[in-house]
Amino acid sequence: MAEQQRIVINGGRRLEGEIAVQGAKNSALPLLAACVLCGGESALHNCPRLSDCDAACRILECLGCKCKREQTTVTVNASVIKGTEVPTSLMREMRSSIVFLGPVLTRCRSCRLSFPGGCELGPRPIDFHLAALREMGADIEEKHGYLECTAPKGLHGARIALSFSSVGATENIMLAAALARGVTEIHNAAREPEIVDLADFINKCGGRVSGAGGSTVAIEGVESLSPCEHRIMPDRIAAATYLCCCGAAGGELILTDVNSGDLRPITAVLEQMGCSVYSYGKKREENNIFINLHRPLISPGTIRTNVHPGFPTDAQPPLMALTTIASGTTVFVENIFENRFKHASELTRLGAKISVEGKVAVVTGVKSLSGAELVATDLRGGAALITAGLAAEGTSKISGICHVDRGYESIEKVLRSVGADIRRI
Ligand code: UD1
Fold it and tell me: Which CATH code fits 2-22+234-424?
């Protein structure tokens, strides 16, 4: 059982070699949900082998779809949708299963799922999702922890202005609008690269989405969508984590299969810290990154998490791990989630100096960390502990690895392949 597994790291080994970065979890989940819209068999290539993707496939199977995985290709046959309910156990397992609401409701005209509730990052409301779907004609009742959603006449287009550029709400609206009557406009839409990947998929299936990647996205509803094949974009957060790992352990890494443009908010900070980062590649978009570390690391000053193209909140924990050994003081201002510093108290067990007050964490760099027993309580926080464990002298043992497995494909194998002394027990 992953809950009982631990990762053991003997820190201080330089990293050297090449890592082919996995497909993006945050793109795979909405794309798996998007398959519900297509009456036939779609194929998603580069789909990472993660527990969250398995959970999404189990939801698809509950709805009556047939899912098959061969290596990193997942095929989803959504010819027939038999059920319209997402079981509570799966809603609890993966909070982002709310992204199934839009596609199921627009295709089947009804959907029942349990309220996702809060999570380890603090309260995660879904009010934007629900308000938008109501504007599109959905009738949504919230009863006994369940959301009963119907749209007997189908959904219709609407002009939706989001008060915050929510990634999940933008995706849910795009998915619902793809088969709705008329045009939906999303103002103040999220601009994350994963939104562009979703728009590309819908358009390949015959949908009409324009403006993705900008702050206004327009979706013209169509009668039906046909299945297609799509390669999921590279995971920019997994890539960022491996770059931070290299910074922490020292060494030289090449990351292949990345979109270096999407990583710019992170590589710019690593450069400020004293790492050399070069992007190169054959494709139009440079698709390889080389990182080389010169010690000592220097603090990058103040890091404010923000919506894309700002510094991504998901990369804040691994970067914090790296700044614990950078000379000077680093200030983190977390603007996206209320409770995203749980890893800070664990990092202090390794000797890091961090003080947290509300949405601000102040890290004072120390010369070295020393190994300790740590507990991961969330996905990216867990990645931060592994990053720090690679830098620490001696042995670190990290439990709570099931959280890390939600977003990283065999993280210990990947890091071992580039020279880390890390294993799972
Ligand atoms: C997605 C990512 C997650 C990332 C986050 C921010 C996936 C599967 N997950 O999560 O890894 O950290 O974007 O980049 O893609 N909010 C509301 N009401 C809503 C929706 C959101 O108040 O209806 C608030 C949230 O509480 C949070 C903020 O908006 O404070 C950002 O949330 P959102 O962009 O929706 O994040 P997710 O889509 O959940």
Answer: 3.65.10.10
